[in-house]
Amino acid sequence: MLGGLAPAVAAENRPIDTAHSRVLVEVAKTGFLSVFAHDHTIQAPIASGHVDSGQHAAVELRFETGNLRLLDPELPAETREEIEQTMLGPKVLDASHFPEIVFISKHATSTGPDGWRVNGNLTLHGQTHPVTFDVRETGGTYEGSVEIRQTDFGIKPIQLARGTVKVKDTVLIRFEIRLGVPDSSNERKASRIP
Predict the structure, then answer these.
(1) Angle CA(47)–CA(52)–CA(54) in degrees, nearest 5?
(2) Any idea of the CA torsion for 54, 177, 144, 139, to the nearest 10 degrees?
(3) pLDDT of the chain along its 194 residues, tens only?
(4) C-alpha triplet 180, 61, 109: angle, nearest 5°
């Protein structure tokens, strides 16, 4: 996503096409009675983001924590609302205290003609930790996934029914990112990245 854009364009600033990009978080259950519980898919709309290409290519994505939504259509609306309230409340994401989730890349290396390994920092729940993931470009869409552990970010996975049903510590984040029209104002610079 980063290094691959550099040869194609000369130091452009391209916004993320937030309307046509998608980030999903998959949360699974474990435990003795987990067979009776639901895994969850959460939509994380991108609030803003951009890609800077050139010598120091960079990508930045920002999410508003309070905009995360549970997709599970098989659940009754009131159950989905209750799960969302728990997810956004103080027991999990604590959106009122940590209203933003941010990813800022540090660098990328090519893994082939249309692939890259991206390294960067993810800030979630007030904590920042490095993440590494692979990205592949197909038809103008950059796709990939990354696993993170909730406990790395100070989030204690929820337990139900006296611990017989637990949310797994590891969650899977899948993304499909499309870029928008180049930003010729060049107001953002890749050098902003720490």
Answers:
(1) 170
(2) -80
(3) 444 444 444 457 889 999 999 999 998 876 433 333 567 899 999 999 998 765 666 889 999 999 999 998 888 888 889 889 989 999 999 999 999 999 999 888 888 888 889 999 999 999 999 999 999 998 889 999 999 999 999 999 876 544 445 788 999 999 999 998 875 554 444 333 33
(4) 85
Q: Structure tokens of 129?
A: 């930790």
Closest CA to 42 of 105, 124, 130: 124
- C-alpha dist (Å) from residue 103 to 2, 129, 166: 13, 10, 27
Phi then psi for residue 113, to 5 deg, are -60, -35
Provide the β-strand partners of residue 178. 141
- Alpha-carbon span 90 to 31, nearest angstrom: 23
